[in-house]
Write a sequence for this structure.
């Protein structure tokens, strides 16, 4: 790997003997099932937001990169980040409660799907602005170097963010300063309804990163082991001061958001795209290599289904945040809260 | 007591903060080797090294965004935006990220960063380097906003900003950098968020901030010669806004005028005038008058530039009319 010749990896996997594939399968199944339950929450009218972006089809990106991260590492995600957060150890019930806008959620119902965060797990925040979370990892990288913490900071974003200037600014800064930062582009082929080849002439996205002097790789996101292998190389390179970029190619199985039926793409394409299934791929490989039997995997699936079913029950039972909490956390806890409009009106109208 | 310029005071505030707190870093265009476009960070790179005084490419959104990420992970960054006119470039990182992170994330973390910038007219710098855009900031909950008018405040407000738990936008005025004052920096400063009453008078209250304070004080001296005594309030910070001081003074005097260099429509002066009109209604003898920037871009022509913003003449004339005295011809 060099700065000037980005590489595309197509089939490198570790040997079966020390395979982490069973663990990856479980992580990916948890993501898949969680996302399915998010969809169900929406259908049942229990989701606080209408803006739900599912990462079905992108599970290998989340599981593979997450496996390369250490506890001190930090990350930001985009609007399609449920899977990444789960893979980093999020509690699904608290995630679901946040998506449902409930007090028990990670952000007490104020963030929801697109603004979920948890400092304990190094999650510096999901983002509803395309590319909005990218420059924060440059700052986290400066911080890691300043404090000699050994932490790497990873920005996860979609192919849509490759149209945003902040990505290029941030890649340039990371390369210029040799920061412990990795940019992970989950290329699901679509920015909302616009296919990547309708948005850019050169779809070899990793070449852009190489042009900035980043260690750049591109992998097929159907194979979680390939993703994990590339991610390990890049994350450890970043830890040693060589920032990286990983493009992971996959297919967004469903629409941009819950209500989007994808009228802009034809059925044949969708059918073919959904065959690029990282969960199914891992399952087939586990069976084929003898690492797991079908019955064992069925048991994992059932276990995960029960876990994720419980998240819906938890969310439905959870309470809304108290109305007065609306004024909390605009500023730090010791600062006066903003004065409610009603109080201000009352003062104006309370004339002698 | 020492004699300092506004620029020296800012530089000293940065140097003192960096000496006291190793987590303070500077990041921005030309802050290091060049020493800052207006010289505020001159030689700090020699004193504190390139790891703490970081020269950046010309990438305003990511300068602010990097400061956000650094602030979330244990540093106390001072990002510099060379001109406030460039704030539009950074508005996502500032308005959608820095301002909202504490709230969106349910209070888990704050963004204790300072965004230093400068604005205003006075250098014939044209429409894209002369604006007063503080209303953009004041209109965004979550951002604190400081605008020092004096040398002492340049020092103290910047030191205080660097101890605040929330993001502070710190807007200097480009026409004040060479202003000198003899100051005692050891004297106890006013608390953060408190307005300063710079002058007392019983005929009207003039509320202002930043460079306009000096025009208002000049006008107030002229007014005194004509028997009109003004109370002058220098807000110092626009968020927090010390409305208690305004209310108390306006209620006592019964007449108010707001002076701001920003354009009049939907500006800071509009907000202040609305609040004074609402909250001091029963005490007001006359309408609250705004003296503010014209609703036009700033020209390079010195005559047009100067004519675009309030000056002592317009301020004094307006005060005389408001108080019922005839304007001096």
């Amino acid at each position: 790997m060099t700065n000037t010749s980005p590489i595309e990896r197509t089939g490198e996997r570790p040997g079966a003997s020390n395979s982490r594939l069973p663990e990856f399968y479980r992580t990916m199944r948890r993501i898949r099932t969680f996302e399915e339950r998010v969809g169900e929450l929406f259908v049942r009218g229990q989701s606080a937001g209408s803006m739900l972006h599912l990462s079905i089809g992108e599970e290998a990106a989340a599981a593979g990169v997450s496996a390369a991260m250490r506890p001190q590492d930090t990350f930001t995600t985009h609007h399609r980040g449920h899977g990444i957060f789960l893979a980093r150890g999020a509690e699904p019930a608290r995630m679901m409660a946040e998506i449902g806008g409930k007090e028990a959620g990670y952000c007490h119902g104020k963030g929801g799907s697109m603004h979920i965060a948890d400092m304990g797990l190094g999650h510096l925040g999901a983002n509803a602005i395309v590319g909005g979370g990218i420059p924060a990892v440059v700052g986290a990288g400066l911080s890691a170097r300043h404090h000699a913490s050994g932490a790497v900071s990873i920005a996860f974003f979609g192919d849509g963010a490759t149209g945003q200037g902040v990505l290029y600014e941030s890649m340039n800064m990371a390369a210029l300063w040799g920061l412990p930062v990795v940019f992970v582009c989950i290329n699901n082929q679509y920015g909302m309804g616009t296919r990547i080849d309708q948005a850019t002439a050169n779809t070899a996205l990793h070449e852009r990163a190489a042009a900035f002097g980043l260690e750049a790789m591109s992998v097929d996101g159907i194979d979680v082991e390939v993703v994990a292998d590339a991610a390990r190389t890049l994350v450890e390179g970043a830890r040693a001061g060589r920032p990286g970029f990983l493009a992971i190619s996959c297919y967004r199985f469903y629409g941009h958001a819950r209500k989007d039926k994808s009228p802009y793409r034809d059925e044949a394409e969708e059918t073919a795209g959904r065959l690029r299934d990282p969960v199914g791929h891992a399952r087939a490989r586990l069976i084929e290599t003898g690492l797991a039997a079908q019955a064992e995997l069925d048991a994992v699936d059932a276990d995960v289904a029960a876990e994720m079913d419980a998240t819906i029950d938890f969310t439905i039972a959870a309470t809304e945040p108290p109305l007065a909490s609306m004024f909390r956390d605009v500023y730090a806890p010791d600062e006066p809260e903003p004065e409610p409009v009603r109080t201000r009106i009352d003062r104006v109208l309370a004339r002698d | 007591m020492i004699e300092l310029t506004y620029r020296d005071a800012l530089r000293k505030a940065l140097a003192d903060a960096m000496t006291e707190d190793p987590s303070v870093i500077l990041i921005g265009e030309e802050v290091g080797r060049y020493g800052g476009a207006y010289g505020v960070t001159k030689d700090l790179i020699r004193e504190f090294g390139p790891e703490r005084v970081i020269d950046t490419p010309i990438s305003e959104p990511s300068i602010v965004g990097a400061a956000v990420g650094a602030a979330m992970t244990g540093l106390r960054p001072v990002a510099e935006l060379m001109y406030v006119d460039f704030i539009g470039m950074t508005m996502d990182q500032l308005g959608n990220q820095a301002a909202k992170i504490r709230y969106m994330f349910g209070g888990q973390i704050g963004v204790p960063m300072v965004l230093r910038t400068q604005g205003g007219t006075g250098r014939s710098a044209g429409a894209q380097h002369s604006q007063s855009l503080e209303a953009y900031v004041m209109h965004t909950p979550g951002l604190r906003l400081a605008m020092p008018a004096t040398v002492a405040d340049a020092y103290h407000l910047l030191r205080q900003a660097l101890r605040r738990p929330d993001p502070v936008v710190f807007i200097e005025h480009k026409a004040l950098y060479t202003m000198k004052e003899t100051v005692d920096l050891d004297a106890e400063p006013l608390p953060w968020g408190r307005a300063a009453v710079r002058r007392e008078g019983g005929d009207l209250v003039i509320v202002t901030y930043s460079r306009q304070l000096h025009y208002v004080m000049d006008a107030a001296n002229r007014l005194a010669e004509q028997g009109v005594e003004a109370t002058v309030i220098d807000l110092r910070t626009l968020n927090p806004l010390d409305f208690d001081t305004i209310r108390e003074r306006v209620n006592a005097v019964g007449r108010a005028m707001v002076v701001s260099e920003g354009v009049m429509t939907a500006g800071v002066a509009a907000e202040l005038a609305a609040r004074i009109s609402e909250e001091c209604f029963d005490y007001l003898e006359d309408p609250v008058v705004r003296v503010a920037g014209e609703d036009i871009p700033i020209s390079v022509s010195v005559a047009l530039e100067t004519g675009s913003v309030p000056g002592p003449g317009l301020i004094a004339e307006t005060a005389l009319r408001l108080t019922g005295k005839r304007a001096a011809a």
Remarks:
- The longest strand of chain A covers residues 181-187.
